[in-house]
Amino acid sequence: MARDTKRARAYADAIRASGLSVYDPIEAGHPQLWIPTPALETLLRRELTGLSLSGLPLRTRSRVVKERVCKAMGYPVPRSFKRSKPRFPGQLLDTYVQKSNNLQIWNEELAPTRRYALIRVAADRVITRIRVVSGELLACLATTGTLTQKYQARLVPGRLDRELITPLDTKVVLPLTNPLARVDPKSSAIDWPQSGDLLLIARIFEALSSLVGTTFPDTGYDQERNRGGALHKLVCRCLGYKDFRDVGQFPDVRHQLLEIKLQTSPTIDLGLVCPDQVEDIGLPPIMGRQIRHCDVRYAIFYATTDGLRVCLEKLFVTTGQCFFERFPRFEGRIVNKKLQIHLPSDFFDV
Predict the structure, then answer these.
(1) How far apart are CA 281 and CA 186, in angstroms?
(2) Which domain holds residue 253?
(3) Is the domain of 99 the same as that of 244?
(4) What is this structure's pTM?
């Protein structure tokens, strides 16, 4: 935790020394000036947690929060805040102060690569929790809300129960892998990935193949997050982690650049970003290499359920780059018009 805090503060110090304003553009993934999402969350929590907004008029409250956000990131506080979208363009960040779990986003679409800082205020108007998440994650939570557009693909199971769709990682990730790597039990699945810690994609496939045939309790069709959480624990344990935390960020097992999907139907929901896209995912560069969406590894489990237990019947492992070589994409995008997003009751408990 202390190491993560030190890293986060280094980004704020670099921005402070740069003289940039929060409206100056920064390339996503810049090694010194782009604050990765985990570090951004750490900075905002340190600066805003415990801040009292009691007795402040609405506009004053909004101004105070924005000033603190600027200060946390290392930016100078502007004399006046522009009506820009997003609110803090330099870090592609918007902020929402929440007294309830009902998030409302007005007059604009969710942007998949934008970051959203959701700031929870208790009944006494004191800030208690902060989470920073992507627009892609919020779109997955949306049951009503702003206009979202989601990509989908089709899973055709095939006759094999285990398929390694590509035996090699992408050219960006391959030099960062270590054929002899083993997961350090002290590391966490949500740690930032480091060169030498990354398992080969073939090694991930080998480890996860043992899960085919595994069963676990079915929590019901309306509890898809709980089903996914149970699978997440199994995957982490199989890879060698003792820490099973899941902060709902992409990819699921950040330390291995691994996204996990559980399929009980042929339709694969991919959210707002296609697996083969070449945009950066916003993590710190590894040995000078910026990780893109297409570099992420995917473990897709096809499962059946009798209503009581889920059985993992098939495993597919691929890179985002080769994803659509095996899973045909649906033409166009599925469009859902939304008005608001209800956050899960445990959303801020990470």
Answers:
(1) 25
(2) 157-327
(3) no
(4) 0.64
